[in-house]
Design brief:
By secondary structure, the chain is an all-alpha fold. It has 2 domains: about 5-85, Hypothetical Protein Yqey, Chain: A, domain1 (Orthogonal Bundle); about 95-145, Arc Repressor Mutant, subunit A (Orthogonal Bundle), CATH 1.10.10. The chain has helices spanning about 5-15, 20-40, 45-65, 70-85, 95-110, 120-130, 135-145. α5 (about 95-110) packs across α6 (about 120-130) and α5 packs across α7 (about 135-145).
């Protein structure tokens, strides 16, 4: 079952439950997925669907960060939509899983004592393995910890 079908069925359930706020959030997410499929002119892959969901969450977090503190309506709406969208987001790797993948990359590159100069090589090998499964900021932080 694709994310579009899954979100559509959740939206129908929200309409039946008369949960307008959830229905609106799901409608926005569904629209983003459909627009990307139209732009691509074919069905989306699971990775592309996950990428769009994560992009929408990221945009909402940016809106949340830039919202004035006195605009509680915007803040609450963004927080609610983030919670709804996270139901459809891929499950992220734990720090331990990222560290294990990082160790595999270090072994493959034969780096026993990596230096800051090696960071580019490490990230180049690591990011394709964790893309869409982890937050890039967390990965960057874990790699940076190697050099301390």
């Amino acid at each position: 079952m694709s994310k579009i079908e899954q979100i559509r069925s959740e939206m129908v359930a929200a309409m039946k439950a008369k949960d307008k706020e959830r229905k609106d959030a799901l409608s926005m997410l569904l629209g983003s997925l459909k627009n990307k499929a139209i732009d691509k002119r074919s069905d989306l892959t699971e990775a592309e669907e996950n990428e769009i969901v994560l992009k929408e969450i990221k945009q909402l977090k940016e809106t949340l960060d830039s919202a004035p503190a006195d605009r509680t309506d915007i803040i609450e709406q963004c927080q609610f939509r983030i919670r709804v969208y996270e139901e459809f987001a891929p499950k992220f790797m734990t720090n331990e899983e990222i560290k294990a993948t990082l160790q595999q990359v270090l072994d493959r590159l034969e780096l026993t004592a990596p230096t800051a100069k090696d960071k580019g090589k490490i990230m180049k090998e690591l990011m394709p393995l964790v893309k869409g499964k982890s937050d890039g900021k967390v990965v960057n932080q874990l790699v940076s910890e190697l050099f301390q």
